[in-house]
Structures are given as structure tokens and as C-alpha cells.
Design goal:
The protein starts with 13 loop residues before the first helix and ends with a helix. It has 9 helices and no strands. The radius of gyration is 19 Å and the shape is globular. Helix 1 runs parallel beside helix 9 and helix 4 (116-129) crosses helix 6 (179-199). The protein has 245 residues and is mainly alpha-helical.
């Protein structure tokens, strides 16, 4: 595997952190609407079939995973050690397990067994190992995105195999982010990040307007925000319902 180029220091890129924050805030608004619908506080919505909601979910996950790819491009360019990589990976994998447990308590029949954090945990390893492939990540990403539309098999329809993504029907789960096609989005994020760092570095390293700096701070704590926002939103809605009776 090709070694990453040498880099001096490990600065944070506020623009990348702000973009990541935009993704998680959009996600939080989406989840809040989902929670309102779950507790019947708004007119009933179909979050599983209505394009207004399904397209939003696709865009949110795409932005989230694209940012993850960008972040890996920065880490690779800064020669992040495997020790540091695995430490962060363990945090993500641990949080994925907590999401599965929490969703099982709330949705036992449709709990999240391979959602966005589970997918990120698997895809991060693949993206890290293929970082040296550079411009080949563009066509590989396209193949990953297109392949599930061309190849499906019932073998991949079980909970133990649907994580691959070559399914013939959507699984019964509250969140499903399989490796295919979503690895393609993260590969594109990595490829885009490598290109930007080589040719338009200022797109990432430039300063943020003062008004947007809080977004950069939030983006640095994206995993913590992800883990906390739903329990807080659901807790507040349950408290409001209890008090309004």
C-alpha cells in the first residue's frame, strides 16, 4: 500500500468540521420530525415511503459519509497512525452497539442492527486500506454505488448478510446503511479530499466567518452529538406529553 505523503502538524480544518456539523444538524431536525410523528404530535407521515422524507434521508446520509471520506483524506495526508485510527474506530463501533441496544428497547421488531455507525465502522477500514489508490477511487465509488442496482440475491436478505447491500427487499429496521452502495460515497469523499488537498487546499484550510465558528466546534463533537441528540429529544417529548395530560 502506498504511504501517505509527509505532513507537518495536525491542524483541524474548520470548514470540514462546519460541513460535518451541517450534516448532523440536518439529521437532528429529521429525527425530531420522526419523533413527533412517532408520538403522534403531527399529522401522520410515512417516513419509509414518502419521497419528501426518503430523499432527505439519502441526502443526509450521503453528506455524512462524504464528510467521513473527507476526514479520512485529511487523516491520511497527516499520516495518522494506525493506533490513533483504531482508537477512534473503537469509539464508533462501541457507539454502534449502543445504538443497537437502545433501538431494540424502543423498536424490538425493527431495531437497528446495521445503521449508519455500523456502516461507518466497516467502511472506514476499507477506505483507510485503499487510500493509496487515489484517482482509482472515483470509478470504484461509481461501481459501488451502481452495483446494488444491478446485482441482488435473496442470500443477502437476512440480518446476518444484508450489511453487504445486495438485497432484493428492504429489511425491517429503523436504519439500514449497508456497505454497498454507501462505500462509494465515502470513497468519493476520500478521492475528493485528496484532490482538494493537492490542488485547492484553501477550500478546506480557509478561515470561517465568525458567525459559522460554532458549527466548527459542533463538528468536532459529531459522534457525541449523534449519541446524545435522540435520547434528549425523545426524553423531552415524553416529558412534555406527561405534563400535558
Amino acid at each position: 500500500m502506498t504511504k501517505p505523503p509527509a505532513a507537518v502538524g495536525h491542524p483541524r480544518y474548520d470548514r470540514l468540521d462546519a460541513l460535518r456539523a451541517a450534516a448532523i444538524l440536518w439529521m437532528a431536525v429529521f429525527h425530531f420530525c420522526f419523533d413527533l410523528n412517532h408520538f403522534r404530535l403531527i399529522e401522520r407521515q410515512n417516513f419509509y415511503a414518502d419521497p419528501f422524507w426518503t430523499v432527505q434521508r439519502t441526502l443526509i446520509v450521503s453528506l455524512f459519509l462524504f464528510c467521513a471520506g473527507l476526514g479520512q483524506a485529511v487523516a491520511w495526508q497527516q499520516q495518522q497512525s494506525w493506533q490513533r485510527f483504531w482508537r477512534r474506530w473503537a469509539q464508533i463501533a462501541g457507539c454502534a452497539l449502543l445504538v443497537s441496544l437502545g433501538s431494540y428497547l424502543m423498536f424490538p421488531r425493527s431495531f437497528i442492527y446495521f445503521g449508519v455507525l455500523h456502516g461507518i465502522a466497516v467502511m472506514l477500514v476499507i477506505v483507510r486500506l485503499t487510500a493509496g489508490w487515489r484517482h482509482w477511487l472515483w470509478p470504484l465509488g461509481l461501481v459501488a454505488i451502481v452495483l446494488p442496482h444491478l446485482v441482488q440475491h435473496p442470500f443477502f436478505d437476512t440480518r446476518w448478510t444484508s450489511w453487504v447491500g445486495l438485497i432484493t427487499r428492504k429489511p425491517v429496521t429503523e436504519d439500514h446503511v449497508p456497505v454497498l452502495p454507501w462505500l462509494g460515497v465515502m470513497w468519493w469523499g476520500m478521492a475528493a479530499g485528496q484532490w482538494v488537498l493537492a490542488h485547492r487546499r484553501e477550500w478546506l484550510t480557509g478561515a470561517l466567518p465568525r458567525a459559522l465558528r460554532p458549527l466548527a466546534t459542533l463538528g468536532r463533537w459529531s459522534l457525541s452529538f449523534y449519541m446524545v441528540h435522540q435520547p434528549v429529544l425523545i426524553g423531552l417529548l415524553m416529558a412534555w406529553l406527561a405534563l400535558s395530560r
